[in-house]
Amino acid sequence: MIVQDFLASASALMTENRDRLIDMDSVVGDGDLGLTMSDGFKAAYESIKESDEQDVGKLFYTAGKAMSVAVPSTMGTLMASGLMQVGKTFKGRTEVQTTEYAALFQAYFDGVSARGKAKVGEKTFLDGLFPAISAMQEAIEAGMSAAQVAQAASDAAQKGFEATQGMIAVHGRAATRGEASRQLLDPGAAVAALLMKAFAQSVS
After folding, report:
1. Cα(191)–Cα(86) distance, rounded to whole angstroms?
2. Max Cα separation, the chain?
3. Nearest 5°: phi and psi at 189?
């Protein structure tokens, strides 16, 4: 995988879906998610776009740092934490094998989870990413190609996002709705689905 290709796809998809994310977030949050994600992933991509750095870890860490500066909001900080944790985990590596894709996104998951203190099932970004990692691992163990592994993750993340309808929100403004939050889809999980779609695009 090429880090630049992944973040270029992520930046493009977040920009393309900016208004949709704003609309979703305005129901449960303060409506700035679309701007935060489009600006944040753009900053992440721009920071490494012309880089000659070969260290995968350093590229991810640099991208995360740039994002944290560009969008220091809650979600911006969470996404930046994910990128930086991948950076720490893959430091010193010049390539990522298909068999390590699940480990890469597990590191992203761990970075977000550690910073946000959320758990799977609490109607957050993690509910989109967690099933993607599981699907990746299964596809890897089945000996599938890089493109197939990434596509399996993308499909699972989309289903994970859709499954947030029915969950009670535990974090953020949505949590104040209590039982009424069940009927809503989680915008954070929508971001996870977009992120995995970007990964599938960049791998294929």
Report:
1. 17
2. 51
3. -65, -30
What pTM did the predictor assign? 0.96
H helices, E strands: number in the chain = 9, 0
132-175, pLDDT tens digit by residue? 999 999 999 999 999 999 999 999 999 999 999 988 888 877 88
DSSP summary character for residue 31 = S
Residues with Cβ within 8 Å of 21's Cβ and at least 6 positions away in sequence, in order, are 14, 33, 34, 37, 187, 190, 191
3-state helix, strand, coil in the chain (%, to 5): 75, 0, 25
* DSSP structure string for 104-165: HHHHHHHHHHHHH---TTSSSTHHHHHHHHHHHHHHHHTT--HHHHHHHHHHHHHHHHHTTT
End-to-end CA distance of the chain: 10
- Domains with residue ranges and CATH for the chain: 3-203 (1.25.40.340)
